[in-house]
Specification:
Strand content: 15-25%
Number of domains: 2
Strand order of the largest sheet: 1-2-3-4
Helix content: 40-55%
Number of helices: 2
Largest sheet: 4 strands, mixed
Low-confidence stretches: none
Number of strands: 6
Distance between the termini: 86 Å
């Protein structure tokens, strides 16, 4: 279980949650306070959730992730060492993806318009050829003999 404190969380409420998690056998419980960049953790040993002394560099046996508190914010790494993105990084990535999708949509629309223009030009050229063909016939000239 991993929770992030928000300004509305009250100590009594968090104590009740902890007791609930302890009673129902949660194996690990992590509580992160982003305002203080503080991570507290507990691990089930001997049937109870017991405090983890050192969280910086801790590797969760259950989640297989490592917690790093050396920087200005909590960083979490996968078992293979890949860092999970922060919320702001995910938001930036999503924004870039939206921009890419919009650009792709615009390019497809431009391609559709270009194809439509080519179709219209071809129709106009064919109509001119047909008019020329008919005009030559009116003048008594067989276009097939040219």
């Amino acid at each position: 279980m991993f929770e992030i404190l928000s300004p509305g969380n009250r100590p009594g409420e968090m104590t009740k949650k902890f007791e609930l998690y302890d009673r129902y056998g949660v194996e690990e419980y992590y509580l992160y306070d982003p305002d203080k960049v503080k991570l507290t953790g507990w691990r089930r040993r001997e049937g109870k959730l017991q405090s983890i002394d050192q969280m910086d560099g801790w590797v969760s046996p259950r989640l297989k992730v490592r917690f790093d508190l050396t920087g200005p914010e909590l960083q979490i790494f996968t078992e293979s060492g890949v860092r999970f993105l922060t919320y702001s990084e995910m938001a930036q990535r999503a924004e870039r993806e939206e921009q890419r999708a919009e650009l792709e949509r615009q390019l497809k629309e431009q391609e559709r318009q270009r194809a439509e223009q080519e179709r219209q030009l071809k129709e106009q050229a064919e109509a001119k050829i047909k008019m020329l063909y008919l005009r030559l016939q009116e003048l008594g000239i067989d276009p097939e003999q040219l």
